């Protein structure tokens, strides 16, 4: 183990910021997409399904390049966002968060979708026949039942966001303090002979963060499961 | 249960078949590991070599760091051409390459590029000027609040040389905050070609390979450590590699490298 220079500590903090932002902001869209895919029948459903899964199938570098084409300062969406809202994504940490969110989205949606499909539609129908609106049914019946699934998806998405490399480096490159995340920093260190020590320290730290996130999610989902089952969480 | 077992068995057969396909990978070809920036030039050189009766070759192009690490772990290569001396020295000290075959093969220059449309047409016709402490600042004016694309300034050779040159020209403190660092020099080239950044620093050979960029100026040779591409035979493969290594010094090979913008070393 080597003591970490400040720019690597920046990389760790930035990774956390990027991953948390990506996960939290994509959660509502993830729940909506999962619900639509699990419950609704509409034209273009398979296309939506394909689009959601695309980042899982495409090489990350391709996803990053497509992001650069669309959201770069010369891209149609990137140019519009910059002109209208002054929001620049290319070469900014916000762009890193966008790349991480898109790469993690399929994992988020898959986990939530599975848990929605596991909910007996009759429970929802029963609530509807008793006069509850669609939104109310979702909030009071479906949502509590799929909470473990949402949690699992969120943790998975966070872990994926923490590890995202290919799309991030292609879209926002590597700017220390702005877009240099843990994987980019590790990659940069491995390019130099003799910096393996600092690289291994970063590897150990990212393993620790991943394990902590996993243990946290296990603990929370045990509590949620216990509450759904109507029992107190075991101490 | 039996269904799962039959799936597993099928999977096992598939894996076995895959391994059998991989195992007898053609061990007969001369295998060359080379830095990614050499791709176009070296492919022409190996074609020449085979046309003149040399044995068939296989080439693996990647970043010098990745290749050097593979060679250090015993990758089945015969020849290694690195884009910088640090990795070759590392391998030579490690005993992974035959130190007596180690020599400088090519040199390269560092240039400042802009997207083609941004350059004055005149600069295409004339030999690009060489930057100096006096003139350099004017070139970087067009940066505005845009960014300067470079390879990783602490890790990838093109970025290390570029940072050294900017430091020498006294521009680094002002420009360091504007730099976007890419994982390799070709990505920096692509960012400029697409117009995502108004300026970039790449090798002269890269700029030559991309019609959508224009060379604004060259960095003076003495502003950075010499850009050398060393070559060496992998330890234990010296005899096998010797004919190809001497072919690299022949006129046709040197001419091909020169046409791609490299400077063949004596």
What this model shows, in words?
The complex is a heterodimer of chains A (235) and B (266). Chain A has 235 residues and is mainly alpha-helical. Chain A has ten helices and no strands. The radius of gyration of chain A is 20 Å and the shape is globular. Chain B has 266 residues and is α/β, with parallel strands linked by helices. In chain B, the strands form two sheets. Chain B has a six-stranded mixed beta sheet. In chain B, helix 2 (39-51) packs antiparallel against helix 12 (251-259) and helix 3 runs parallel beside helix 4 (85-94). The longest helix of chain B has 21 residues, at 2-22. Mean pLDDT of chain B is 87; it is low at 121-125. The A-B interface holds A 68-69, 72-74, 90-91, 169-170, 173-176, 187-194 and B 63, 65, 68-69, 86-87, 90, 147, 149, 152, 154-156, 179-183, 187, 191, 194-196.
Task: List the defining traits of the structure above.
heterodimer, A: 235 residues, 10 helices, B: 266 residues, five-stranded mixed sheet, 11 strands, 20% strand
Instruction: Let me know the largest β-sheet of chain B.
Output: 6 strands, mixed
Using the CA coordinates, give the radius of gyration of chain B.
22 Å
Number of helices of chain A: 10
User: Which parts of chain B are unreliable, with pLDDT below 50 for 5 consecutive residues or more?
Assistant: 121-125
- Proportion in β-strands of chain A: under 5%
Report how far apart the termini of chain A are.
Answer: 36 Å
The backbone outline of chain B, from C-alpha atoms, is: globular
Major β-sheet annotation of chain A = none
Mean pLDDT of chain B: 87
Q: Which range best describes the helical content of chain B: under 10%, 10-25%, 25-40%, 40-55%, 55-70% or over 70%?
A: 40-55%
The most extensive interface, with participating residues per chain, is: A-B, 21 and 23 residues
Arithmetic mean pLDDT of chain A: 88
């Amino acid at each position: 183990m080597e003591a970490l220079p400040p720019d690597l500590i920046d990389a760790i903090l930035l990774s956390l910021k990027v991953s948390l932002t990506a996960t939290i902001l994509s959660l509502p869209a993830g729940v909506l997409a999962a619900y639509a895919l699990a419950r609704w029948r509409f034209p273009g459903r398979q296309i939506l399904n394909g689009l959601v899964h695309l980042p899982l199938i495409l090489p990350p570098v391709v996803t990053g390049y497509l992001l650069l084409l669309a959201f770069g300062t010369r891209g149609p969406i990137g140019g519009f966002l910059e002109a209208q809202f002054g929001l620049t994504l290319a070469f900014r940490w916000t762009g890193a968060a966008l790349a991480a969110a898109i790469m993690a989205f399929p994992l988020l949606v898959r986990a939530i979708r599975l848990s929605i499909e596991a909910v007996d539609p009759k429970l929802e129908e029963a609530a509807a026949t008793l006069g509850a609106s669609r939104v109310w049914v979702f909030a009071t019946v479906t949502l509590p039942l799929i909470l473990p699934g949402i949690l699992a998806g969120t943790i998975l998405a966070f872990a994926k966001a923490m590890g995202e490399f290919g799309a991030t480096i292609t879209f926002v490159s590597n700017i220390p303090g702005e877009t240099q995340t843990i994987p980019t920093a590790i990659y940069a260190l491995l390019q130099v002979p003799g910096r393996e020590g600092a690289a291994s320290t970063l590897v150990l730290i990212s393993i620790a963060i991943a394990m902590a996130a996993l243990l946290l999610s296990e603990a929370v989902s045990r509590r949620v499961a216990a509450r759904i089952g109507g029992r107190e969480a075991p101490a | 249960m039996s269904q799962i077992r039959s799936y597993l068995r099928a999977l096992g057969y598939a894996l076995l078949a895959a391994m059998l396909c991989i195992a007898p990978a053609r061990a007969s070809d001369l295998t060359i590991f080379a830095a990614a920036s050499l791709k176009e030039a070296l492919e022409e050189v190996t074609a020449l070599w085979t046309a003149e009766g040399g044995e068939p070759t296989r080439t693996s192009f990647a970043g010098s760091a990745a290749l050097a690490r593979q060679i250090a772990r015993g990758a089945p290569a015969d020849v290694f051409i690195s884009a910088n001396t640090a990795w070759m020295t590392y391998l030579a000290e490690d005993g992974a390459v035959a130190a007596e075959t180690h020599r400088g093969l090519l040199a390269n220059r560092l240039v400042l590029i802009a997207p083609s449309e941004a350059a004055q047409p005149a600069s295409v016709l004339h030999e690009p000027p060489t930057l100096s402490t006096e003139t350099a600042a004017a070139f970087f004016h067009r940066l505005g609040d845009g960014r300067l694309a470079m390879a990783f300034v602490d890790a990838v050779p093109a970025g290390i040389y570029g940072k050294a040159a900017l430091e020498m020209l006294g521009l680094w403190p002002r420009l360091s905050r504007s730099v976007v660092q890419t994982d390799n020099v070709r990505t920096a080239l692509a960012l400029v070609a697409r117009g995502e950044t108004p300026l970039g620093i790449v090798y002269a050979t890269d700029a030559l390979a991309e019609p959508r960029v224009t060379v604004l100026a060259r960095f003076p040779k003495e502003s950075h450590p010499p850009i050398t591409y060393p070559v060496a035979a992998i330890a234990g493969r010296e005899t096998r590699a010797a004919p190809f290594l001497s072919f690299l010094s022949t006129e046709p090979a040197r001419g091909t490298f020169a046409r791609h913008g490299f400077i063949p070393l004596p």
